[in-house]
Amino acid sequence: MRQSPANRILILLKTDGPQLAAAIGEALGISSEAARQQLTKMAEEGLVEPVAEAAAGRGRPRQFWHLTTAGNRQFPDGHADLTATLLATMVSQLGQGALDTVISAREADTLQRYRSEIDLTADLPSRVASLAAIRTQEGYMADHWQDDDGSLMLVENHCPICAAACACSGFCRSELETFRAALGARVEREEHILLGARRCAYRIRAAA
C-alpha cells in the first residue's frame, strides 16, 4: 500500500531527525513549496512544528521541521499507559525483586533468540547488520553503519518499550548487556532517548 505524503514525512523526521522543507521535498520527490504546504497542514494537526536555527556565519536563521509529541505518538508505543501501570503495580504489590526477576527472564529469552539468528562466526559488521534487522522487525526502526575509525554504529530511531524503560531503567541496562552478549563485542550507548536524545545510538567495537 502506498504511503501518504504525511506518513512519509513522519517517517523521514523520525529516522533522520529535523529537516528543512527543501530537503523533505527532495526526499519525497516534490517541490519545496508542496512540502511546505503539507508541513503547514501537519502543523495545524499538531504533528510537526517549525524551529528556527541559526545558520553558519551571518546567514538568516533556517527553519527546521521537528516532530511534536503528538507526531511521535503516531508510532507504536507498546500500550504505554497499561505497561507503566502494570510495572508500578508489580513493584508495589510484589516488590522490586519481582520486577528484577521479570527483566532477567526477558533478557535470557531475548539473548537466546538473538543468538539463534546471529552467526557469531561471521565478521562483526555482518553480526551488527543481523542485529539491526532483528531490531527493526521488533519495531525499533534500526539502522547501522561503519565509521572511518572502524567502529560500527547501531542506531534505533524509535523505542516501542519506552514506557517500560521510563518506568524501570533496568530494561535499558538489560538490553545493553544483551547486545554485548549477542554480538560478542564491546558495546557502549552514546545517545539515549530517556536522557532526551532523539534516538538511541550504540558504538560497537570488536572485543579485546
TrEMBL record:
- GO MF annotation terms: hormone activity
- State any GO CC term: extracellular region
Name of the molecule in the record: Predicted transcriptional regulator, ArsR family
Species of origin reads Rhizobium hainanense
Taxonomic lineage per UniProt? Bacteria, Pseudomonadati, Pseudomonadota, Alphaproteobacteria, Hyphomicrobiales
